[in-house]
Design a protein that fits this description.
The chain is α/β, with parallel strands linked by helices. It is 48% helix and 10% strand. Bound molecules: iron/sulfur cluster and zinc ion (2 copies).
Length: 343
């Protein structure tokens, strides 16, 4: 006997929702998924009528589902948003060049304007060249820092009011776990926020409409909707630390499916004791981007690359920032310490 959809009781169920355990037909699953994203958007007041919103698009499943659902909800509920796709080309041959082809197809499928900003044009370095210099251990640090700023720069070029990203519930739970394990209180406090206001000049507000969507459901949604997305992993092995947090969460989830939502809930409700020292937000003296040091992370990483001292931006070398700013030469000992290629 085929199982009937527990929502309409009419059609045949084709899946069991990971989030609720309900057996649903395709149409009822689509409706439930879209309705939940809509509720997230409305409850958190993520957008205002008339805003220009850049969708951070990588061609992967999360951002493809985000673009699809944002376009659909914008029309269904008359949000009045002007949507655009915004992509970053990190310069990873055999990976990003292929995924950007997917974004270009999405642009046509969804009839949305697309802007691509590249690391090469912004920083003068592709990730391929960076990995050649720094090796494969800390490459994601460079990539992550550069991407954050690249998205802001692209958003400013497009004059968007807000960027929305495809972070899902699993990503956020992983970040909570990572920040707890690292004792990074400042990030722990920020990482569950569904939206951030502009933290300073050149920083565009961001939001995460898929914050409460499980990764498994995003995959099901993309699969049943037959969305065109790119599913290959980056060739420069993804962030190892996040990988551990991910495996840990998947194990927890198999024993207790609500673990992901529970961790997000815990992260949202943590409060920081009075008197805990938080970094003071200022601006980078070189490029003007937000920074708690005299130079922002991006400028320090770039300086390290350009000087052939890749370790400069890895770890804490804050006391060297002033020397860099005033272009004083480093001592031989400092240079030696920062030169190691495979660290
Ligand atoms: Fe960049 Fe690392 Fe992600 Fe690859 S895995 S795209 S190098 S952050
Ligand atoms: Zn149904
Ligand atoms: Zn800077």
């Amino acid at each position: 006997m085929p199982v009937l959809c527990s929502s309409c009781g009419d059609k045949r169920a084709v899946l069991k929702r990971p989030k609720t355990g309900h057996s649903l037909c395709k149409a009822c699953f689509f409706w439930a998924f879209e309705e939940e994203v809509h509720q997230t958007i409305v409850t958190a007041n993520l957008f205002k009528h008339g805003e220009i919103v850049g969708i951070a698009a990588s061609g992967g499943k999360d951002s493809t589902v985000l673009a699809h659902v944002m376009k659909l909800l914008n029309e269904r509920f008359n949000y009045g948003l002007e949507l655009m796709l915004l992509s970053v080309d990190e310069g990873i041959s055999g990976y990003r060049d292929d995924s950007l082809e997917t974004v270009k197809r999405n642009q046509e499928q969804y009839e949305l304007p697309l802007k691509i900003v590249s690391y090469e044009e912004l920083y003068g370095w592709t990730m391929d060249a960076i990995v050649k210099q720094v090796g494969r251990k800390n490459n994601c640090t460079f990539c992550g820092v550069f991407r954050r700023q690249a998205l802001d720069r692209g958003a400013l070029m497009l004059k968007v009011d807000k960027i929305c990203t495809g972070h899902n519930a699993d990503d956020i739970a992983e970040t909570v776990v990572m920040n707890v394990l690292r004792g990074d209180i400042a990030r722990l406090r920020r990482c569950t926020a569904i939206s951030t206001s502009s933290e300073g000049e050149g920083v565009v507000p961001r939001c995460k409409p898929l914050k409460y969507a499980y990764e498994k459901e995003i995959v099901l949604y993309a699969y049943f909707k037959k969305l065109d997305y790119f599913s290959t992993e980056c060739i420069y092995s993804p962030n190892a630390y996040r990988g551990h947090a991910r495996t840990f969460l998947k194990d927890l989830e198999s024993v207790r499916p609500s673990s992901i939502m529970d961790i997000i809930h815990s992260g949202e409700n943590l409060s920081v004791r009075d008197g805990v020292k938080m970094p003071l937000q200022g601006t980078c003296k070189r490029c003007g981007y937000i920074s708690s040091q005299s130079l922002c992370k991006s400028c320090v990483l770039l300086e390290g690359l350009n000087r052939g001292l890749p370790k400069l931006g890895i770890g804490k070398h804050h006391r060297l920032h002033d020397k860099i700013l005033t272009q004083q030469p480093l001592t031989e000992k400092e240079e030696r310490k920062l030169k190691a290629v495979h660290f």
